[in-house]
Specification:
CATH architecture of the domain at 66-185 and 199-220: Sandwich
CATH class of the domain at 66-185 and 199-220: Mainly Beta
Distance between the termini: 22 Å
Largest sheet: 8 strands, antiparallel
Number of strands: 16
CATH topology of the domain at 66-185 and 199-220: Jelly Rolls
Oligomer: single chain
Shape: globular
Order of helices and strands: EEEEEEEEEEEEEEEEH
Length: 222
């Protein structure tokens, strides 16, 4: 078999949602593939269309139904297709000191808030540029041992920034993730599609493993 014929790495996963999996296809609830007893809900019109979780950018989101503690080392990945900028992707911007979120800015930046430790990456051009209507693979890797925090778009680590996001502080209150596409204000609910969310608490993926996962799943989106 070729180098990229390997399967995606799922060992060590804590939470996984896959829009193509039957655990998410009943139109009312989503289930954590790792632990199907953990259920979430499509809220305010968020829906499953084909193999995509679809959001209208008005007020819908997916409540994960479980508070995921991301205070310690973790890796988060997902495929996303944005239909507009200035939108929340993962998490919710409420309870600033204890929440975790990714925000896709109108100014071509990705903002990450991790319990009030607020950073941004400049993705205004080149290989890191955001493209509306195109599936992109995002991976965030946080290691508490060396305080590093890396963000990847497809398989490349984003290194352009103005806020030194490569390090995050460690003396934070518990930081939780509870939703997809949600916002505290109506203007920034996510608009577009999300698929294949994976969260691994206590595990950091290497760049080789990120490439392996990208190659194993990209045929569904590109």
């Amino acid at each position: 078999m070729g180098q990229f014929a390997r399967r995606a790495i799922v060992n060590g996963a804590t939470y996984q949602l896959d829009a193509a999996n039957k655990l998410c296809d009943n139109g009312a609830t989503v289930r954590n593939i790792v632990n199907p007893t953990e259920t979430g809900t499509y809220t305010n019109g968020a829906s499953l269309v084909g193999d995509e979780f679809v959001f209208d950018g008005i007020n819908d989101y997916i409540d994960l139904g479980n508070t995921i503690d991301l205070t310690d080392t973790h890796t988060i990945s997902c495929w996303a297709k944005l239909e507009s900028f200035g939108k929340m992707l993962i998490g919710v911007d409420a309870g600033f000191s204890s929440c975790y979120y990714f925000y896709m800015s109108n100014s071509s930046r990705i903002y990450v808030n991790r319990g009030g430790d607020f950073k941004f990456w400049d993705i205004s051009g080149g290989a890191n540029a955001m493209v509306l209507g195109e599936w992109l693979y995002f991976v965030a890797v946080r290691n508490v041992l060396d305080t590093s925090f890396y963000l990847y778009r497809n398989t490349g680590r984003i290194t352009t920034n103005q806020s030194n996001p490569q390090t995050h502080t460690t003396n934070l209150t518990p930081i939780t993730l509870e939703s997809l596409g949600r916002s505290a204000t109506s203007a920034t609910y996510f608009q577009g599609s999300i698929a294949d969310l994976n969260i691994s608490v206590g595990k950091t993926l290497t760049e080789a493993e990120i490439l392996q996962n990208y190659e194993a799943t990209k045929h569904r989106y590109q």
